[in-house]
Structure formats: C-alpha cells, structure tokens
Amino acid sequence: MWTHARWQGRFLPHPLAPGERLRAYATWCNAVEGNTTFYATPTRDTVESWARQTAPDFRFVVKLPKPITHERRLLGVDDEVRSFLDTIEPLGPRIHALWIQLPGSFGPTDVGALAGFLRRLPRSYGFAVEVRHRAFFDDPRSVRLLEKVLTEAEAEWVPFDTVAFFQSPPTSDAERDAWTKKPRVPRRSSALTDRPIVRYLGRDDTARTVEGWRQWVDTVAEWLREGRSPTVFIHTPDNAEALTLARRFHDDVRAALPGLEPLPEPMPTAATEPLTLF
C-alpha cells in the first residue's frame, strides 16, 4: 500500500528507490496493513528490507495468504503457516497482529475450524480476525459463539466499517467498483482485547468521509482512556487522500485527548536522489 501511485510526488518523494518507499510512508503513518501478503508471500530479503526501513515500534498488521484462509479455509495448513511465519520473522516486534481475513462464505458452522487454527498459532503473535458472513452480525447466537472463540484465543475481532460508504449510491468509478466488492454489514465497535483494530471505508468526498468517522473518534478516544492501544486504518475507494485523512483522524482523536502523541513529520516530497539519463 505504501507504493500507491496516487501518492507519488504529492505526499511521497518521486522517484524513490524501492528500498526507501516504506521509509517515506512511515513518516506519515506509524502502521500499515500488510495486504500484499494475501496475494503473494514476499521473499525473506524483501521482509528484511521492510524491517530496515521502519522503527521497531512501527506496526504491521500482516494478512495471512489467500491459500491459507480462502482456499484451504484454515484446514491442513500447518506447513504453510510455518513457512509464512518464517518468512516474516525479520519484522520482529513490528508484527502487531496476524490478520486472518475470512471469506464471506465462512460462517458459524466453520467456527470450529477457526478455533482449532487459533489454538495452533504461536502465542508470541497477536491475532486479528475479520469475518464477513452476515450471521456474525445479525444472529446473536453466532455472535456469542465467535466472541467466545476469539476471547479464548486472545484474538481481536476486526470490524470493517462500510456503513458510511453504503449510505448513498456511488458517484465515481472507484466508488462504483467498491460498491460491488466491499461487504455490506452493520457497524461493530466492541473491543475484545487491549489492541483493537478498525478498518474504516469512507467516500471519495472528504467531507462525507470525515462525517462518517465521528463515532470512531469517540470510540477510539474511550479505548485510549481505558488503556487500550488501538490501530485504525482509513480507506476511501480511490485512496487518493488516505494519508492526509489518516492524519486528520489522528488529529481529531488528539483534540479529544491532547496528551496523545502526534504522528511523525512527513518526509519532504522532493526526490532524495538526482535524476540521471544513464
């Protein structure tokens, strides 16, 4: 995500060597969704580069690969999990949580597979589970069942809040594309652990995005007062302004909690290396 084309030259220096792009992103935000690992496991050398570019307290929420979560549905994947964890090991304390995003077809009858899978994961990691089956939002029994399994494993339930996004029809190509792909589920704002994680999807219109996150500002501020350490990811359909929006959300929370530390100062957008012809 830190190489998003719409940010190059606007928020992040351009051109910039691949081994410096995450470092530049980390001056804007102190956490990142490791979404690329869902589609392909990086090389260990690549992961070592990520570690060199970030401070030990930078947060990676690393998504487990698609073959583990969607194709094998958490069954018979011990070897694949061990291989993946070995690859990301260089991140060390930067691994804030292993992100287990499950397909929309993964429902209450599959919770046993999730429970067994979580029991086999090393306790040195934090776990964050994202579900999309409607029963986990509409059926109280299914909600209680999932919460029980997650609580026993000390795992967090990751809400993907799309309520503001679906409040009115799309108005751009990016919104129309997201309209057909993103889950339409009720908002959930309860934390199960001391490290809650929130994913929020707004609109390409900044004012509507900000209006839609008002409840999260209050919730995150309350979590901080309780001694929790939340992580919040701000998205829009085109993500063109995601970096500035993330910092604006952080500023809104700081307005409620002035003692909250500010984010780092962004790196200047001037290129760090001279252009050459040869």
UniProtKB/TrEMBL annotation:
Origin: domain of life: Bacteria
Transmembrane segments: none
Gene3D superfamilies associated with the record: Protein of unknown function UPF0759 (3.20.20.410)
InterPro entries found in the cross-reference section: DUF72 (IPR002763), UPF0759_sf (IPR036520)
Pfam family, one: DUF72
Name of protein: DUF72 domain-containing protein
